[in-house]
Design goal:
alpha+beta; 18 strands; seven-stranded antiparallel β-sheet; Glutamine Phosphoribosylpyrophosphate, subunit 1, domain 1; 651 residues
């Protein structure tokens, strides 16, 4: 995996910022760096002080150093930081070109690059490297932006197309890899991480109040193109942008994001047995493709169904190879599922390593985690994932597979119950609904409560629930939150009437945030994380499933459970409880972290008093006195203040 950066401006001081922009991405690509600049019609290919010596000699860059290059005439610059995964030779050095007319800076993996390469070779196109990057570039030269549909993978890329006098930006279907754009009226810049823009002259970190509102009170981030920073947008998943090199406008309005992918509509329903067989075949092939690597690889293993399924698939595909797995554990039994991870390790004969996230250590490194994340994050559970990737780097495992995307596409969260009940009630399926709810809910009382809530949703307009939701939000804000801006309007959180709608909603809202955390946690340790559940070929099948097929026999994720038969122990396949990589945040908050929470809340109200008032600490103090339960909002407020200080953010 890699980091990319670029800038479009005729101001030499802006072009000079490309080098420090790239250096701020060193963790994403510690193995190599490269640069190109467009001056008039000429492209100059340059090395830097951190370019690998083999790349310098192979590409004859000894006399072409960016530190000594005259940038007075430059109008476009591209930078690349390389983490070598496929074709470790200097042939994979970037930015890359095939003919000097089209250049690419690419962060990602096209897992089906061998198949795409074979198709291109059948048309008479030849290759000089073994890298997937050259295949992606050749595919663009052959099919233009239509080539994105032919790629199965994750990416953020920038293509300098000289014949068209444009820079093309593209991002993968689900937003696994990040790409941000910044404009100040004089320069337009893009980068893998927001922190790169700090190197641009005139940069000021200004808070986006609407993003802060949605983060604190809707538990959402990355749900629109807006970020926590004013004047910084993300290129949305499944979108591309075509930017004129000589455009006079240098603001965000000149970046017209165009969708090239969307989740499939409901397709024709097939039998459950056929769906299970198709899912198993496709999922195994997804894992097979994501095991392509020229370096060592392993997998995260929480002990839950999703990560366990990946490990089971890896063993089915490779009976003799060593499979390394890493598990986050807890000394608090109620937050620990390592016993299930041990079952999977023994069943698949995997080599297991474990980490135990320490609350004292988190307080010491939270600033480092936030610096890598670029934006506040909503839970300390992120630390468990951070610790797993930290261990992977220690063990020198550069590629890790992980289970992100399964919960959102297969309705794995408890939030699926509401749309499931609504969908079943609307079709009059009371008998099957009651049978499944008794299995899904721990008591008949809770099952009956789910039905009552579903009936209420069916019999009342959405404005009814929006009214009570806004009342609850207002009560939470009372006396301490004075902001008026928001990004997501109440109508955007409309009820979902069935599980297809719910899955679509979660993949657009919740998944993007989790992929953000996954990318930064892994890349902070120069680890490439791959997510087999987000192979686009699985989506038509998943969105063809009816609610009854998704909740088969009272089991959520029914199709995954059935497909994993024989690949995992039954104790894991038929687990009822769900954790994932969690931490005992509420326990830490009442003990080791209490002073940290109070200090950060008070400081935030002092510095941002127009937005956050001094009574922000009142609910937390009630929690410490055991007068109320723990609220995840406490962490968000403390985290927001640390972010404010690290990036020197102003209101």
């Amino acid at each position: 995996m890699c980091g990319i950066a670029g800038i479009i401006s005729s101001n030499p001081s802006h072009q000079e910022s490309l080098l420090p922009m790239a250096r701020l991405l060193r963790h994403r690509g510690p193995d190599d760096e490269g640069f190109i600049f467009l001056s008039g019609k000429k492209v100059s290919h340059l090395a830097g002080a951190e370019t690998h010596p083999s790349s310098v000699s192979h590409h004859d860059l000894g006399g072409c150093m960016i530190e000594n290059f005259d940038l007075d005439q430059a109008s476009v610059g591209l930078a690349h930081r390389r983490l070598s995964i496929i074709d470790l030779s200097p042939n994979g050095h970037q930015p890359m070109t095939r003919d000097g007319k089209v250049w690419i800076a690419y962060n990602g993996e096209a897992y089906n690059y061998l198949e795409v390469r074979a198709e291109l070779e059948s048309e008479g196109i030849s290759f000089t490297t073994e890298s997937d990057t050259e295949v992606v570039l050749a595919a663009y030269e052959r099919w233009g932006t239509e080539s994105f549909n032919r790629l199965n993978g994750m990416w953020a890329m920038a293509i300098l197309d000289l014949p068209k006098e444009r820079v093309i930006l593209s991002r993968d279907r689900f937003g696994i890899k990040p790409l941000y754009v910044y404009a100040d009226g004089h320069a337009l810049a893009f980068a893998s991480e927001i922190k790169s823009f700090q190197a641009i002259p005139g940069w000021k970190a200004k808070a986006n109040e609407g993003a802060i509102h949605d983060f604190l009170f809707k538990s959402l981030s990355d749900h629109t193109r807006e970020t926590f920073f004013e004047n910084v947008h993300q290129l949305l998943p499944g979108h591309f942008a075509s930017i004129k090199i000589d455009a006079r406008e240098r603001d965000l309005s000149c970046i017209k994001q165009q969708p090239w992918y969307g989740l499939p509509s409901a397709t024709e329903e097939v039998s459950l047995d056929q769906s299970v067989e198709s899912f198993r075949e496709l999922f195994l092939d997804s894992v097979r493709l994501r095991m392509r690597s020229d370096v060592r690889l392993g997998s995260c293993l929480s002990g839950g169904l999703d990560s366990s399924s990946i490990v089971g698939a890896m063993r089915a595909l490779s009976e003799e190879s060593t499979i390394d797995v890493i598990t986050s554990c807890s000394t608090h039994k109620e937050f620990d599922e390592s016993s299930y991870a041990d079952l999977v390790s023994r069943f698949t004969n995997s080599r297991s390593s474990k980490v135990f996230p320490d609350p004292d250590a988190l307080i010491e490194i939270i600033d480092s985690i936030l610096w890598h994340q670029d934006e506040p994050f909503g839970s300390a559970s992120i630390y468990a994932q951070w610790s797993v990737f930290e261990k992977a780097r220690e063990l020198e495992i550069p590629v890790m597979l992980d289970g992100q995307g399964a919960d959102e596409s297969h309705c794995g969260y408890n939030s699926f119950l509401r749309p499931y009940v609504i969908g079943q009630l609307s079709k009059g399926r009371l008998s099957s609904l009651w049978s499944n709810l008794k299995l899904l809910r721990p008591t008949k009382r809770k099952a009956f409560g789910s039905i009552l809530r579903g009936l209420l949703d069916l019999l009342t307009p959405s404005a009814f629930s929006e009214f009570f939701s806004s009342r609850a939000e207002a009560a939470k804000k009372k006396n301490w939150y004075f902001g008026t801006k928001r990004i997501l309007k109440a109508s955007s959180l409309a009820r979902q009437g069935n599980l297809r709608e719910h899955s679509r909603f979660m993949m657009k809202h919740g998944l993007r945030m989790l992929l953000h955390w996954e990318d930064r946690n892994s890349m902070a340790h120069s680890i490439e994380s791959r997510v087999p559940f987000l192979d686009y070929r699985l989506m038509p099948l998943i969105f063809s499933l009816s609610d009854n097929q998704r909740i088969a026999g009272g089991w959520s994720k029914g199709i995954i459970r059935k497909a994993m038969n024989g690949l995992l122990p039954d104790e894991v396949i038929f687990r009822k409880d769900k954790m994932g990589f969690v931490t005992p945040e509420s326990l830490w908050a009442s003990n080791e972290w209490s002073e940290f929470y109070l200090r950060e809340m008070r400081e935030l109200s002092e510095e941002w008093g127009k937005l956050i008032g001094p009574r922000v600490v009142d609910p937390f103090e009630k929690f410490l006195r055991k007068e109320k339960g723990y609220d995840p909002l406490f962490w968000k407020i403390a985290c927001l203040n640390r972010w404010r200080k690290i990036f020197k953010v102003e209101l």
